[in-house]
Structures are given as C-alpha cells and as structure tokens.
C-alpha cells in the first residue's frame, strides 16, 4: 500500500497541547481514556500527530525502555480519515525513532495485518477484564511473607522487579507510577518479591502492573485491591500465560476482548525472568 495521500498533511511532534484533540479522537473510536490518562502517557514518552488544515487527525506514541527496547501505542486515526493509509504512515514514522530497538505493542484483530506487514510477529495474547470489585477472602501466604503498602523508598526494588518481569528496564515510568498510583508490596523477610499497583483510569480504576513469583501470590496481590475497592469499577489486563482467567471469571469479571502481543526484533531479545512474572499490565500501550 502506498503512503497516505492527504492534501496539507503535516506530521509533527506530539505535545501536551494536543491532548484535547487526541482524546476527542480516542473517544470517537470507543476508548475510555480520560485527559489525565493521555497526559500520563504523553509525559513519559514521545510521539507524533498527523495534522491537516490545522486539525489533529491521528496520533502515535512510543516509550523507550533502557537502550534496547520500546513500547508503541496510542495509535489513533479519526474515523473519517481511516482506511486511507494514515495509520501505516504514523507507524512507519514512529518506528523510525526506535531504530535498533526491540519494539512491542498490543494489537486488536483489525490491526494485526498492518503490524505483520511492518515486521511484527505475534508473541502471545492479553485479555482485558472488567467488573465490580469484590473479594471477601484472605489469601494464605507463607509465614515469612506479608503484604505492606508500597512507598517511594521501594522505587529501586520495584523497578528491578518490573525489569525482570518485562525483560527491559523502565525506571522513569515506575517512578511516575509510584507518584500517580497506590501500591502494595509482597514482602519476604524484608525483601520485595512482588507488587501490585492501583490507579484511576478510564471509567474507574485499573489494577496493574502486577508482578509476582507465581499465580497464588498474584491472586493475593490482586485480591488486596479487590477487597480495598469493594463495589468500584475495575479493569485488569491479563497475559494469556498468567493463569488467572478462570479465577477472575469466578469473581464475576467479564472479558472485554483480547489483543495480540506483537514484537519486532531489531535487537537481541532479553528474556524475562521466569521466577518474577507479570500477571497484569500497566496498560496496553505501555505494557
């Protein structure tokens, strides 16, 4: 397919001033993102907007993780400008800013063919769950383990856990998340071995990221927030390997759809740690 052909099309850097227009587009395509959700994502990464006759008609954002990895997301095109190649053009240009990096994204079924054509391969799936928080059980933990509030002093430990689980470091994002969200740490004898974050997002709250050694401990971390937020609308994005689907469905959470995890290898991959695993995403954009 040829590049998009638009009269007076300008591709330029995404700035905070573009968030109002970006949110208007995302709402038009059915995304629940608030202004604050766009702002959180924009401040932590970089991006492009497509502008025509002074109006923003498309966006794409990316986030660099260390020296070798990156995430790509928030790719939107206004409904009346879709199916003309603008999404492809935005993807091509934002990928140029990530040259030499391993790039991952989460793709809807409609987006998979485009991303495959741009060199991405499917590496898994994520299921989005939504529902009302409810949890009246206390997860049994070994005697030396406990849940405690996460504080700013946990930044280094939580950053290290997040990097092991993701396979790439993202300290600036974890630091911003600690300021933005509430967190709980799974502590073993004074050492952090897992954590779970809760923050405002979209229609309610999102639980994620959740990092833990295994599914039993992940359920304890998630259960803490379900109990603390009784009756509130919760979203959680769960990788297919997490083994939490049946448990969440038993709690009354409904699937809001699947997305494909897609990766483009421009650098040697760094394997995620098998003893420290991700059980829920920060977001589909940031991973």
Describe the protein.
The protein is an alpha+beta fold and 287 residues long. The protein folds into two domains: 9-99, Aminopeptidase (3-Layer(aba) Sandwich), CATH 3.40.630; 128-257 and 267-280, Gcn5-related N-acetyltransferase (GNAT) (Aminopeptidase). The protein is 28% helix and 36% strand. Strands 1, 2, 3, 4, 5, 6, 7, 8, 9, 10, 11, 12 and 13 form a 13-stranded mixed sheet that branches. Helix 1 (19-28) crosses helix 2 (35-44) and helix 5 packs across helix 6. It is globular, with a radius of gyration of 19 Å. The two termini are 29 Å apart. The model has no long low-confidence stretch (mean pLDDT 93).
- Percent of residues in helices comes to 25-40%
Helices and strands, in order, run as EHHEEEHEHEEHHEEEHEHEE
Please indicate the percent range of residues in DSSP E strands (runs of 2 or more).
Answer: 35-45%
Q: Could you give the count of β-strands?
A: 13
Unreliable segments (pLDDT under 50, ≥5 consecutive)?
none
So what's the overall shape?
globular
Overall mean confidence score, pLDDT: 93
| CATH arch. level architecture of the largest domain | 3-Layer(aba) Sandwich
């Amino acid at each position: 397919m040829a590049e998009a052909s638009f009269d007076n099309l300008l591709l330029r850097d995404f700035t905070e001033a573009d968030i109002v227009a970006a949110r208007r587009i995302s709402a038009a395509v059915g995304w629940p993102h608030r202004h604050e959700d766009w702002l959180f994502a924009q401040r932590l990464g970089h991006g492009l907007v497509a502008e025509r006759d002074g109006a923003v008609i498309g966006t794409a954002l990316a986030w660099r993780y260390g020296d070798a990895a990156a995430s790509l997301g928030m790719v939107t095109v206004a409904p009346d400008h879709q199916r003309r190649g603008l999404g492809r053009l935005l993807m091509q240009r934002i990928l140029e800013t990530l040259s030499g990096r391993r790039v991952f994204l989460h793709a809807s079924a409609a987006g998979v063919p485009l991303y495959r054509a741009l060199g991405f391969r499917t590496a898994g799936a994520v299921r989005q769950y939504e529902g009302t928080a409810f949890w009246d059980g206390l997860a049994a933990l070994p005697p030396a383990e406990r849940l405690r509030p996460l504080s700013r002093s946990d930044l280094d430990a939580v950053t290290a856990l997040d990097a092991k689980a993701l396979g790439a470091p993202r300290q600036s994002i974890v630091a911003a998340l600690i300021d933005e969200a509430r967190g709980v740490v799974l502590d073993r004898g004074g050492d952090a071995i897992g954590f779970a974050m809760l923050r405002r997002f979209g229609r309610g709250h999102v639980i994620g990221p959740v990092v833990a050694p295994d599914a039993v401990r992940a359920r304890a971390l998630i259960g803490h927030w379900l109990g603390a937020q009784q009756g509130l609308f919760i979203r959680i994005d769960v990788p297919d390997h997490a083994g939490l689907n049946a448990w969440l469905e038993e709690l009354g959470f409904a699937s809001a759809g699947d997305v494909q995890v897609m990766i483009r290898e421009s650098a040697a991959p760094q394997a995620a740690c098998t003893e420290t695993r991700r059980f829920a995403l920060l977001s589909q954009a940031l991973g």
